[in-house]
Specification:
elongated, three-stranded antiparallel sheet, 2 domains, seven-stranded parallel sheet, 14 helices, single chain
Length: 316
């Protein structure tokens, strides 16, 4: 009976705390117990299964899909967003909204943000960010040069500058092409003091926000006057490439794919991305499923923000 009497008192303490909403000090005074005893009884209530914690995910959230992604890909975190249509435009909009909220609530003062600026989904994220007043970043660093026709390379500059303004940071731009005409041209451009200043910050990035691309260029890159030749795309496919992060390509197992194209890219390499403390990837859509699966196996992504349709395909 002693144990039963003990459990009865523990149950009463738990009831007062969890159901009646009373503070521990108030419970201690009411039952003539010490506050330390009340605290111990509350812990004991959990151990004795008197108090059980239940997490009931709200409608429109997908904790099971997120858990399955974490388990299958050894992924630290995943966010799966609600989306009514399995269509690229709708998917990018929903992922962008979720990523904007994530950035707003997790941005730390003095953060150095690296942004892969040729991603429609990242563009949607920036569109949804509210100006930050409390946690101000230090720099927003452009991690990939402009693409294609110089007249449309301003897209990358504008995205980086706008994100910097919203986060209270100073923009650090890469005022060069993302893919040069030759390795020699790349070395020459990287020698520019302004380019060097930005690239020197790659090793200091604390948060990288990246998109994931398929081998076939996205609509955004195609509109830019994208400089990939059909031969180069064919070489990538033959080498087993399924996708890229900032034009650094990888195969379905996550192994980097090196082709002559890699020698012409001015941007953050995967090896440096791996050293970044937090890497958030934004991607979704049927055409990118294989690319996302490969990217998750590269081992550089800490959090994936995707949609429910893509998450289910990645698990299946």
């Amino acid at each position: 009976m002693t144990r039963l009497n003990e459990l009865r008192l523990i149950s009463r303490v738990a009831q007062m705390y969890h159901i009646e909403g009373r503070r521990q000090a108030e419970i201690a005074q009411h039952l003539r117990l010490s506050q330390a005893t009340v605290s111990r009884m509350l812990k004991r209530a959990e151990a004795e299964d008197i108090v059980r914690t239940s997490v009931i995910p709200p409608v429109g959230t997908y904790s099971e899909l997120e858990g399955a992604l974490r388990a299958k890909y050894d992924l630290p975190e995943a966010i799966v967003v609600e989306c009514t249509e399995d269509r690229d435009g709708a998917i990018m909009a929903r992922i962008g909204e979720a990523a904007a909220h994530l950035l707003e609530v997790t941005l730390a003062p003095g953060e150095i943000i690296g942004v892969s600026s040729w991603s429609q989904t990242i563009f949607k994220m920036v569109e949804n960010i509210h100006p930050q007043k409390s946690a101000q970043a230090k720099y927003v660093v452009q991690t990939l040069g402009g693409m294609g026709d110089p007249s449309v390379q301003t897209h990358a500059t504008q995205l980086t500058t706008r994100l910097a303004r919203l986060t209270g940071a100073e923009p650090k731009l890469l005022p060069v092409q993302g893919v040069t005409t030759s390795r020699e041209a790349k070395l020459l451009m990287q020698a520019d003091p302004f380019v060097r200043e930005t690239m020197d910050l790659f090793g200091s990035i604390t948060l990288a926000i990246v998109g994931i691309g398929a081998v076939e260029p996205s609509e955004l890159l195609a509109r830019s006057g994208n400089i990939f030749s059909s031969r180069e795309l064919s070489d990538l496919a033959e080498a087993g490439a399924v996708g890229d992060i900032s034009l650094r390509f990888f195969d379905k197992s996550g192994k980097p794919v090196k082709t002559p194209l890699d020698d012409r890219v001015i941007g953050l390499p995967l090896e440096e991305l791996e050293r970044v403390d937090r890497v958030i990837a934004l991607a979704g859509g049927a055409k990118k499923t294989d690319a996302i699966a490969g990217a998750l196996r590269v081992g550089v992504i800490d959090m994936l923000v995707t949609d429910k349709f893509t998450a289910q395909r990645l698990i299946d």
